[in-house]
Design a protein that fits this description.
This protein is an alpha/beta fold. Helix content is 44%, strand content 15%. It contains eight helices and seven strands; from the N terminus they run E-H-E-H-E-H-E-H-E-H-E-H-H-H-E. It has a seven-stranded parallel β-sheet with strand order 3-2-1-4-5-6-7, sandwiched between helices. The radius of gyration is 18 Å and the shape is globular. The structure holds nicotinamide-adenine-dinucleotide.
Length: 258
């Protein structure tokens, strides 16, 4: 395995499962020390016990990213130990609901976590990066940020917001040597997808084949992504291999939103 992140300290939010967990594993395999942030404390602790068996490679930090004070305290704690080289904004929620049925609470929760949470973490971390004149941010948005999807209005709007937020941060902070990019996954085999579409082969087949009733065209590569497929794209943008890439949106969806 290459060691693109040797001696690097990376913060990953939403690290307890799914795509964030895959990113955490990939970065550690390539030499990083990861601060794994998530609201799901027990799962974080399990992951930390597993990954730290052969020596310290990650620290679990249980935090709700929608709470500004908790985020600032977590980032203060991390920075008191090691300077943060990179940030992956992975935490997110999806409440599948028709526009007519969506509640104000679901709308607010979606924005509080997906948008405000990403803002709080990015704001707190990049403040320190500015002082050092270097840093990298990758935000995991969605191909649903740019392609309208049925029953996902709050989610699509929130992902459009964080994708643009990330590009604007990149625009303003480029002069401080900070790169900011977006990874936009399509359907990926995680708990979030299972909650929306179910886990069965038949339901995955429907996503792959497309559904005219839902205005979905299907997935030309004929498969659902694994979390590791997304993690590889995130790691590339975080790494020095991407050192002249910023304000980019890398769509990783098997061609679904051509
Ligand atoms: N799975 C997909 O098909 C898909 C497609 C496109 C984009 N995405 C995006 O990828 C990212 C990861 O999704 P996933 O599929 O791995 O989902 P997931 O539900 O498996 O994981 C999301 C993680 O975020 C954490 N989280 C939720 N609210 C939080 C909060 N307030 N504070 C801290 N952590 C919180 C959860 O505990 C969980 O560990 C999300 O931003 C999601 O929107 C997923």
């Amino acid at each position: 395995m290459r060691q693109r992140f040797a001696r690097k300290t990376i913060v990953v939010t939403g690290a307890a499962q799914g795509i964030g967990e895959a990113v955490t594993r990939q970065l550690i395999d390539e030499g990083a020390f990861v601060y794994a942030l998530d609201i799901h404390r027990e799962r974080l602790v399990q992951l930390s016990i597993e990954l730290n068996k052969a020596g310290p490679v990650m620290e679990a930090v249980a935090v709700d990213i929608s709470q500004r004070d908790s985020v600032d305290a977590a980032v203060d704690h991390i920075e008191s130990k090691r300077p943060i080289d990179g940030l992956v904004n992975g935490a997110g929620v999806l409440f599948p609901r028709s526009f007519e049925a969506v509640t104000e609470k679901e709308w607010a929760d979606t924005f509080n976590i997906n948008v405000h949470g990403t803002f709080f973490v990015s704001h707190s971390v990049t403040r320190r990066m500015i002082l050092r004149g270097c840093g990298v941010v990758v935000t995991i948005a969605s191909n649903a940020a740019a392609t309208p999807r049925m029953n996902m209005s709050a989610y699509c709007a929130s992902k459009a917001a964080v994708a643009m937020l990330t590009k604007c941060i990149g625009l303003e902070l480029g002069k401080h040597g900070i790169r900011c990019n977006v990874v936009s996954p399509g359907s990926t085999n995680t708990a979030m997808l299972a909650a929306m579409a179910g886990h069965t082969d038949e339901r995955h087949r429907k996503l792959i084949d497309g559904d005219q009733n839902l205005y979905r065209t299907g997935i030309p590569l004929q498969k659902i992504a694994e979390p590791e497929d997304i993690a590889k794209a995130v790691a590339f943008l975080l790494s020095d291999e991407a050192n002249h890439i910023t304000l980019h949106d890398l769509v990783v969806d098997g061609g679904a939103t051509f």
